[in-house]
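Two quick folds needed for the group meeting slides. Do the first one here.
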Amino acid sequence: MANPKNTQNSAPKPHVLDSFTLKRSILSALVVLAFFLLILSLDRIVTQNLTQWPDAERAFFGSLARVGESDWMLIPTLLVWVLSQMTSWINLGYTKKWAVRAIGGMSGFIFISVAVPGIIAAFLKVAIGRARPMLMDEVGILHFTPFAGDWRYAGFPSGHATTAFALAWAIYFLFGKRTLIVFLGAFLISLSRIVDEVHYLSDVIAGSMLGTFGAFWVRDFYLKRRWVHNKSGLGPKKGTQNRFLRPIQRFWRRRSAKT
């Protein structure tokens, strides 16, 4: 006779998605909606306070905003990705060739992780057409002119926050906890958009969420195909390894041994 305890232990565990009943899904949606309404209620006061900071602080955050442009994230990573694929035409040697390809593979991962949510953000900004804070006194904080063709009506979500957090997550997925400092950079870049009076707090939070979800989606897409990590799992944790690091480490060890 089977042991009831063993039978109970052998029973398949319910999938995590099974717990998302209609009631819980509606409740989760209401919680998210309430949170976002709270953020919207803070848009005016946060903007008025941060835009009154001294000129020195505003100048610092203005320079951060230029660092947060997506061009410097996308163009270099795309170039490295493409150039690394040309190593098959050049006689670099086995170790050096795979090290270059590994760097290219990681650059490609970063490029896709930033580009996907960045493109979505660029479309949403134009389609939603939310007026930016510099028009707050004129049209209020909730004025929308979809497809206006005017950058002043392209405030939601923040493109800088989207790409900054997407980049931060992509780097974290590749290199783990040692790179957590990148999230501080993403936060400061996002904050700079409020200080510069070009985005509201809700624009920045929506952008950071979009960048996060986009980077996770790309990570999961890569994980299913084992294009970056050699085991399935949640990013840089026990059980997953960035398989691109090994060729680089091997090349570095051989080079260090020669010197």
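Then this one, please, same format:
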Amino acid sequence: MDNVLRFGAVAVHLGEKSGKYPDGNQVIVHGADTRVAFDTPLVSNRIGADFDEVDLVLLGHAHEDHMAGLHRLPRARVEVHAADLRAVQSWEGLAAHYGYADDVLARVREMIVRDFHYHPRPDATGYLHDQRWDLGGGVRIRAHHLPGHTSGHCALVVESEGVAFIGDIDLTGFGPYYGDATSSLAAFRASLAEIAHLDAKVWVTSHHRAVITDRAQFLADLGRFAAKIDERGDKLIGYLREGPHTLAELVDRRLLYPRGVSLPYVESAELNSIRMHLDELAAQGRVGADGDRFVLA
């Protein structure tokens, strides 16, 4: 595979369309003593020896598209933030992590086994914020907890190279995703403010944007990404300005995904996200309830 960017000890193997979902971008860090992979997206299955000889996988968080190469590394150690650990260790943990209805979970499980080579890792262990790894030869990694996308979402920073893998704070036009049971809109807002101060000179995203090497560009992209949250809140206000809506009616109108997107979890993600926005807008005194309908306050 030739589509590789290198930053000292760090190799970034770009996935299809710069890692656009369902693919992702694979970071591999080469220390003198240890080779580490950050996540294992679909592209990891096409890399070969550079990936297959990894000693340690550090997952920035637990989702199906970040675990798609774990089946290739049965002997490698796997670590993830402790808040996401159960989601890596078993299907039951991942199902609770998603938090969807049982019929949706059944379809999601079928999809991730078929399309993402899903294999749980009961041997996985948990790390915490500010944990550090010394790979030898002066190559050092630090975990920076940035929850919201999931409760355990982290940036993985190769401090020796100034490279920050920021995972699914991916700076895409879609905007932040917080549609699962372990997601948090409030935590995502806080993480977006915090990541702006992360000490790095290269930022690597899981999806689509891939690599940014200019801080001004990174901050501009981060601002546009973060602005999607308030745009969604304004969109809900617009719906309610037309008249009262039930939660089901709001889900049907869509907040995140265009109509026609048919992934099995879309309605569940819409439901979870809309609930978070309604709670936030209610706390701001902008939205109230009239029976089972939501109205402008």
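Slide caption for protein two: The chain has a mean pLDDT of 97.
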